[in-house]
């Protein structure tokens, strides 16, 4: 399947539509099978104990799946999460960005299902795994 949006277009979309995360989340790489996004971890993402917070990891997973869907269907701002499940498996390594790798498992006309593995940069073992279902609005 040919991609509808490339890495640069997705990053520009993030900056334009989600200024609240501008500069924090970037698409690192993209092909027909996977999208990898980076969370530039800083103090606002940390919780007591010096680790990345669950909400920050959930947001990274959500944005990564959303971008992987848009890469395939084009700019559809109103695609929304309808179901989500996340497993926090280990503490992220301190002082490292997080990388989220997404695979789209199913892409239909009205629903898309994706899975994300989140790792600390340079680490093999995932810190979290997330699966989400998105609703895609009908074309007008």
Q: Gist?
A:
With 140 residues, the chain is α+β, with helices and mostly antiparallel strands. Helices cover 22% and strands 39% of the residues. It has a single domain (7-135), classed as Roll (Thiol Ester Dehydrase, Chain A), CATH 3.10.129.10.
Order of helices and strands: HEEEEHEEEE
Shape: globular
Shape-level CATH architecture: Roll
* CATH superfamily heading: Hotdog Thioesterase
The tally of strands reads: 8
| Topology-level CATH name | Thiol Ester Dehydrase, Chain A
Pfam families: 4HBT
GO molecular function: fatty acyl-CoA hydrolase activity
Organism: Paracoccus denitrificans (strain Pd 1222)
Protein name: Thioesterase domain-containing protein
Can you give a write-up of this model?
There is one protein chain. The chain is of the alpha+beta class. It has a single domain, classed as Thiol Ester Dehydrase, Chain A (Roll). The chain has helices at 7-17, 54-73; strands at residues 25-30, 35-39, 46-47, 51-52, 80-88, 98-107, 111-120, 126-135. A hairpin with a 5-residue loop joins β7 (111-120) and β8. It is globular and about 50 Å long. The model has no long low-confidence stretch (mean pLDDT 94).
Q: Could you name the key traits of this structure?
A:
single chain, 140 residues, alpha+beta, Thiol Ester Dehydrase, Chain A, 6-stranded antiparallel sheet, two-stranded antiparallel sheet, 2 helices, 8 strands, 39% strand, globular, HotDog_dom_sf
């Amino acid at each position: 399947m040919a991609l509808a949006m490339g890495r640069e277009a997705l990053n520009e979309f993030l900056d334009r539509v989600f200024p609240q995360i501008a500069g924090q989340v970037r698409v690192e790489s993209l092909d027909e099978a996977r999208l990898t996004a980076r969370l530039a971890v800083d103090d606002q993402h940390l919780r007591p104990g010096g680790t990345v917070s669950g909400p920050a990891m959930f947001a990274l997973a959500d944005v990564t799946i959303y971008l992987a869907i848009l890469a395939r269907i084009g700019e559809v701002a109103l695609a929304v999460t309808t179901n989500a499940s996340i497993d926090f498996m280990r503490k992220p390594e301190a002082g490292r960005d997080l990388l989220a790798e997404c695979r789209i498992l199913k892409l239909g006309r009205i629903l898309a299902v994706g899975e994300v593995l989140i790792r600390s940069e340079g680490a093999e073992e995932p810190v979290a795994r997330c699966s989400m279902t998105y609703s895609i609005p009908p074309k007008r």
